[in-house]
Structures are given as structure tokens and as C-alpha cells.
TrEMBL record:
Residues 662-731 form the Fibronectin type III-like domain. It comes from the Bacteria. Pfam families: Fn3-like, Glyco_hydro_3, Glyco_hydro_3_C. This is Beta-glucosidase.
Length: 772
């Protein structure tokens, strides 16, 4: 075909432009929609209002007649053997290619938030665990493996990462977020993007933007934030992932910002994303999001009007199936209500991406790998390492952990022997597999009980209660087991699900932050035996467990740590691994108070003008170890040019008798500014692994750009004046406060500013430590 001939201008845009000029309107529209062949309209779906949205009456042959933009979740809608799925997908692609005169295949997308969402694929820890690891390099390694498995299965686009910054822990999708700090979310999320994109899979940033700031933490509820919070808290992770990560797709959110739904927000999807940040990829709809402009938001009177709004705003592809961008858009074009130039604009972006993926190559083959391997030893090793790094030791005042060798251990609680306790709502067994119990989990998921017994620990087990069922029938057995043990480990927390089928996950929002069901009463009953209790929390959000934690011998927090999470927890409990996770979210002291993150201005903290004390029980960044570390910090200069760098050196030494990893955190404190600022905010961090007696020099090179904020008049500024860089073990535990002065004139910065602090970690020998 002429548009594929080598005699044509060699640039991708020239090829794409030639093809666009030759296509009919029907062929153009076909490239702007997806098709979800396996969508479940029974009401047990995996997208909001799926049962109401999937009965479109279109046949396969009708939809693909002029081509097809995307295939929606061929692996992620039902348990499919990978080899059979690959053959089926190849056959579908062959039909699509044969049906349209240009021979263009569909781009295939899948979910990949906690691993490739397919039956039999490795289930990795959820994003809150990524944040708890404070290890972007390991997250990038994980994403590269996820991407490789997807490409082997014929998938081109992954609907991850989630870059929403947690604002209210009651929100059910808190488990999908990386944490409550935009710098942590941005750096870890960008690492994920690099890994996925490096494997040849298009990363999709979601949910753009403000979705996590909904009123009262309710899913899809209106968002009431001002432009400064949007600019300084919500948008930076997305900007980082676009500019530094090279993400090639963005998914609009279901949110409405100040009354404007994201799917219809030209300022968000075009002015900021494209014109300001230079994004050149595709914007895809969150599932049914364009139609929701009519059915939920009420800003469109028909599907055609919804299509017109979304297309003009900058949404290029409708997912998951054909609704607004099909016949309704064609009719609106015929009436002159939509400029066909907007269709061509979206089409060029779609075809350019297909060209980048090789889908327009003359020799393209629909079969990627006849027998893709989705769960191998290397992937499980990465999942285990990430799970280990994400376990957070919250308290251990009397040294109850690690468990004493030979101790009689009672293991109780509803999550002690439940493989699903390790998985978030976007892990395939929890997301889809629960509807197909006859197929099994598809992967090996050792429980905490399995893993503890595998270490040789003497364990007796009693379930005690369910996560949500109010029955206390099992309390007596749990109490008896605790009384007969040297130590009692209690595993409680969440069950992930969708739309009310769990206690955490999409559509599973909470009214308060008490442990679900009667689990807190079970913990109290066991505490009352007098046996030392180790409280293990397996959750998708932080819960206020202050009174229970105060009486426990130790408290361990894990955020859905993936298929090897049980092993990681057993290793931490027995001391085979020293805990090194740090909290990516604060753990509140009060279950009923309005949740709030550590990013608070002075009046958002405890004060004499309110009877409510919002101080967290355990602050962002907190985490303990089985070894000890000493720090010595200094700034290399007191002056910091408003267009220059500050350098902070921290000498870290493992002063204990065990190997371990420490996480050095760097916070900015700006005491006087044009507008109120958070008391502290994270601007750098380093994970440092050291053997006993070893030292390392951590150097933070901090560009003044990272001090920037949205000033009084709406511009992003670097403001001269006194600041502190605080070297800290958490957002509330400073080790050294280094006073510096930003010198020079007030400086306005834009999207070209530097977004991150450079960190180097150099191991030191004993002589070098002496001289340091």
C-alpha cells in the first residue's frame, strides 16, 4: 500500500498523514474506539456501571468492518490459559486485519497495576507497597518484567501506574495509590513508567486528575480543591512521569474539578498536558467515562454531545467499547456540530502510536509468543524482594520481634491462613478470579501460616473471626490458642474487592478508619490473655489502631504484599530479614476524625483553637529495624542560589549487629512564604543497605527548583529567604535541621524546571569513615 512504501517520506508523521488522508470517516472513527468482547453484563463487573453499559447490540463483524482502535482486556476478563489466550488473540487480530482495507491491527490493552492482570501471571505487591519500599529501582525492575510478560502475550498498552496522591484514607482506591506525598508518588511512579515503557509497552498514567481528592473519600464524588492544591500536590507526579518517564498515554479520571468533569476539561487535557508539558501520546477514556458525561455528570444531553465535549477536550480513544465515538459521533459530524479536524487530530495520535509499536509495519505478525510464560522464577524473586522491602515495623518496644527460636506461636485472625489477604483489588485472582473459583488461583500464594510453618516455627492456628461477618463464634478458640502460646501473632485487616464486594478497593469506601467487622474486638480479646501479642496488619489503607498498638508487643504493617507476601512476613517475623519499609501514608490516631495527610500547613496541625488533635499515631516515613543506624549530616554551603543547587551529605553507619537497610529522608521546611505551605514536605530520599559496621556517604544534590510553589498570583515561583533542609527518619522525626538561605531575586519557573533531587550512595571503608 502506498502509505507503507519506502519511497514515501521516511518520517512516521508523513506515513500517518498519508494514511489519514486516504481514510473514510467510518474508517477514522473505527480507530478511536475499543471493543470489550468479554465484558460481563451480569452485574459482577470490573468497571463502574458495567452492567448498564455493555449491552450495545453490536456484533463483532460489524465493529471490526472498518478497523478497530483497541481490544479491551482479552486476558483480564476471565481466566484464560496463557497459550490459549495468545492463540485466540492472534486469531482475533488476524480477523481485524483482514476485515479492514488498510490491514491495521488493534492495539491491545490490559490492566497491570499489581502485575499483568491475567490468569497465572505473577501477582506483585500493590502500589502502597511500592511506596513503602522507597525503592524506585526495584519498582522499575518489576515494571520491566510486567511489560515483558505483556508483550510476550501480544499486549501493547498497560493501564498503570496510578499517580493519584492519597488525600483521604477512607477512599477505597487508597490501596492503588503509591502514597500521600507527591514527590514519593512521582519518583516511584516514574520508575514504573520507565520499566514498562522500556519493555515496549505503553504506560498509561491515571487518573488524570484529582480523582483521589473526592469529598469524604467517596468514589466518583465531586472534588473540591483549589488551583494551588491541584498544581502543587495533584499534578506534579503526572508531570514527572510525562517529562522524566516518557509515558505515552494518559487516562482521564472520573472526577469533576470545580464542576468540570475531567473528560470534558480542555484546560486539563490540552492546555496543561499537551501545550505546557509537551505530551504527544494518546489520551484514553477511563471505562465508560465519556458516556458518563451524559449519564452521571449531566453536562451532555446525549451521547453525541458527550462525544463532542470529550473530543474537543482532547480524549482520543473511547474505552472500553463503542458508545459515544461510534454512531452518535458520526451523526454529530454529519450535522456539522463537530469539526472533522478534531477526529483527524485524535486519529493521527492513535496511528502514530500504532506505528511506534510496529503495528503498521508491512511484516507485522499477530502472534507474539505461542506459549507466553507469565509467572517465572525471576518474576517471583522480584515480587519477593519488593514484598520484603515493603513490610513496615511500627512498634517493637520490648523486642518481641524477631520471634525467639523454639517459641510456641499462636497464629490467629481471619487473614492468617488466607491467600487472598496478600492481594489488592487489581490482582487477577481478586479482580476476576473470585467469580471463577473452579479455575483456582492460577499461582502459588503461601499464606502467613504456610510460610511460618515452612520456617520450622511451632504454630497453632485459630481463625477467630471473619473480616466482615459479625460472628464471634471463633473468639474462644483464638483466646485458648493465645493462652497456650509464648507469643500470639494476630493477622487482621482488609479483603480487597470491587464495588462493595470487599473492604478495600474500587468502590469500597469507608465511613471511618476502624478495622472492619469485629476484628478489633478479636485483637482485644487476645490481648486480654496477657500473652505477648504481635499485631500484623494486612490492609489496603491505614487504620487507626492506636489503643491496640499501645498494648501490643509489636505491630507490623503490610499493604497487600503480593503472592510472596506471606513468605516476606514470615521472614520478618522470624528475623531472617530485617524490616526496612517506611510508611507511604500516615496512620491516624483517631478512627473517626477527618483523615488528613502530613502535608499540612501550621493551622492544619494540633493547635489551641480546636479540640480535635489530628496528630498521626505513626507519621509518614516511619519504620523501625532490627539493627541500628547512626547519621551525621552537613550542608556543604549555607547559601543556596535561587537558580542553583544545595548539597547535603549524610554519613550513615550500621551500628547494630545485623545487616539492614535504612531510608534517609530529606524534607524542606519553608518558615515564611507568600502563601501558607506544608510545615515539611519530602524533597529527596535514599535507601541504604549496610552490613554491620559498614558506612556509606549519601549525597543529596537539591535543585532550588524543588522548593518552587504556586505563589499568591498563580505563578510557580522560587522565593528567596531562609529555609531548612531536614534530614529525618520520618516526617515527624528530624535528625538534623540544616539552615540555608535561598539568595537572589524571586524567580518564576515553568515546566522546564528540574523536578527531582539527585542522590548518590557511596560505600565507605573504615579509614574513609574515620576521615569523614
Amino acid at each position: 500500500m502506498a502509505w507503507q512504501e519506502p519511497t514515501l517520506d521516511s518520517t512516521t508523521q508523513a506515513h500517518v498523514g498519508d494514511l489519514v488522508a486516504r481514510m473514510t470517516l467510518e474508517e477514522k472513527l473505527s480507530q478511536l474506539v475499543g471493543l470489550w468482547v468479554g465484558a460481563d453484563a451480569s452485574g459482577a463487573g470490573v468497571a463502574p456501571h458495567q452492567s448498564e453499559m455493555t449491552d450495545d447490540g453490536l456484533s463483532w463483524s460489524e465493529v471490526i468492518r472498518d478497523g478497530l482502535g483497541q481490544l479491551t482486556r482479552p486476558y483480564g476478563s476471565a481466566p484464560v490459559d496463557p497459550a490459549a489466550g495468545a492463540r485466540s488473540l492472534a486469531a482475533s487480530q488476524a480477523e481485524i486485519v483482514a476485515a479492514n482495507r488498510w490491514g491495521i491491527p488493534a492495539l491491545v490493552h490490559e490492566e497491570c497495576l499489581a502485575g499483568f492482570a491475567a490468569w497465572g501471571a505473577t501477582a506483585y505487591p500493590v502500589p502502597l507497597s511500592w511506596g513503602a519500599s522507597f525503592d524506585p529501582d526495584l519498582v522499575e525492575e518489576m515494571a520491566a518484567r510486567i511489560g515483558a510478560s505483556m508483550r510476550a502475550a501480544g499486549v501493547h498498552q498497560g493501564l498503570a501506574p496510578v499517580l493519584d496522591v492519597t488525600r483521604d484514607y477512607r477512599w477505597g482506591r487508597t490501596e492503588e495509590t503509591i502514597g500521600e506525598d507527591p514527590y514519593l508518588v512521582g519518583t516511584v511512579g516514574t520508575a514504573y513508567v520507565r520499566g514498562l515503557e522500556g519493555a515496549g509497552v505503553v504506560a498509561t498514567l491515571k487518573h488524570f486528575a484529582g480523582y483521589s481528592a473526592s469529598r469524604a473519600g467517596r468514589n466518583l464524588a465531586p472534588v473540591s480543591i483549589g488551583p494551588r492544591e491541584l498544581a502543587d500536590v495533584i499534578l506534579p507526579p503526572f508531570e514527572m512521569a510525562v517529562r522524566d518517564g516518557g509515558a505515552r498515554s494518559v487516562m482521564h479520571s472520573y472526577a469533576e474539578l470545580d464542576g468540570v468533569p475531567s473528560a470534558a476539561d480542555h484546560t486539563l487535557l490540552t492546555t496543561i498536558l499537551r501545550d505546557r508539558w509537551g505530551f504527544t501520546g494518546t489520551v484514553v477514556a477511563d471505562y465508560f467515562g465519556i458516556r458518563f458525561l451524559q449519564t452521571l455528570h449531566g453536562v451532555a444531553g446525549s451521547e453525541g454531545e458527550a462525544a463532542a465535549l470529550a473530543l474537543a477536550a482532547g480524549v482520543d480513544v473511547e474505552l472500553p467499547s463503542v458508545h459515544c465515538y461510534g454512531e452518535p459521533l458520526r451523526e454529530a459530524l454529519a450535522r456539522g456540530e463537530v469539526d472533522e479536524g478534531l477526529v483527524d487530530r485524535a486519529l493521527r495520535r492513535v496511528l502514530t502510536q500504532k506505528a511506534e509499536l510496529g503495528l503498521l509495519d508491512a511484516g507485522w505478525s499477530p502472534l507474539a509468543d505461542a506459549d507466553p510464560v507469565l509467572d517465572d522464577e525471576g518474576s517471583r524473586d522480584v515480587a519477593l524482594r519488593l514484598a520484603r522491602e515493603s513490610v513496615v515495623l511500627l512498634t517493637n518496644p520490648a523486642g518481641a520481634l524477631p520471634l525467639r527460636a523454639g517459641a510456641k506461636v499462636a497464629l490467629v485472625g481471619p487473614l492468617a491462613d488466607d491467600p487472598m489477604a496478600m492481594l489488592g483489588c487489581y490482582s487477577f485472582p481478586a479482580h476476576v478470579g473470585v467469580h471463577h473459583p473452579e479455575r483456582g488461583l492460577g499461582i502459588e500464594i503461601p499464606t502467613v501460616l504456610d510460610a511460618l510453618r515452612a520456617t520450622g516455627t511451632h504454630v497453632t492456628h485459630a481463625r477467630g473471626c471473619d473480616v466482615t461477618d459479625p460472628s464471634r463464634d471463633g473468639f474462644d478458640a483464638a483466646v485458648a490458642a493465645a493462652r497456650d502460646a509464648d507469643v500470639c501473632v494476630v493477622a487482621v485487616g482488609d479483603r480487597a474487592g470491587l464495588f462493595g464486594r470487599g473492604t478495600s478497593g474500587e468502590g469500597c469506601d469507608a465511613t471511618d478508619l476502624h478495622l472492619p467487622g469485629v476484628q478489633a474486638d478479636l485483637v482485644r480479646a487476645v490481648l486480654d490473655t496477657g500473652t505477648p501479642v504481635v499485631l500484623v496488619l494486612l490492609t489496603g489503607r491505614p487504620y487507626a489502631v492506636g489503643p491496640l498498638a499501645a498494648d501490643a508487643a509489636a505491630v507490623v504493617q503490610a499493604f497487600f504484599p503480593g503472592q510472596l507476601g506471606g513468605q516476606a512476613l514470615a521472614e520478618v517475623l522470624t528475623g531472617a530479614v530485617s524490616p526496612s519499609g517506611r510508611l507511604p501514608v500516615s496512620i491516624p490516631a483517631d478512627a473517626s476524625g477527618q483523615p488528613g495527610t502530613y502535608l499540612s500547613a501550621p493551622l492544619g496541625r494540633r493547635s489551641g483553637v480546636s479540640s480535635v488533635d489530628p496528630t498521626a499515631a505513626f507519621p509518614f516515613g516511619h519504620g523501625l529495624s532490627y539493627t541500628s543506624f547512626s547519621w551525621s549530616a552537613r550542608a556543604t554551603s549555607d547559601d543556596w542560589a535561587v537558580d542553583g543547587d544545595a548539597e547535603v551529605e549524610v554519613l550513615v553507619t550500621n551500628t547494630g549487629d545485623r545487616p539492614g537497610a535504612d531510608v534517609v529522608q530529606l524534607y524542606l521546611h519553608d518558615p515564611v512564604a507568600q502563601v501558607t505551605r506544608p510545615v515539611v514536605r519530602l524533597v529527596g530520599y535514599a535507601r541504604v543497605h549496610l552490613e554491620p559496621g559498614e558506612s556509606a556517604l549519601v549525597t543529596f544534590t537539591v535543585p532550588a527548583d524543588v522548593t518552587a510553589f504556586t505563589g499568591r498570583f498563580g505563578a510557580r515561583i522560587v522565593e528567596p529567604g531562609d529555609v531548612e533542609l531536614r534530614v529525618a527518619r520520618s516526617s515527624a522525626d528530624d535528625s538534623d535541621a540544616l539552615a540555608l538561605r535561598l539568595v537572589g531575586d524571586l524567580r518564576t519557573v515553568d515546566h522546564t524546571r528540574r523536578l527531582t533531587t539527585h542522590v548518590s550512595v557511596v560505600p565507605l571503608h573504615a579509614m574513609e569513615v574515620t576521615n569523614a
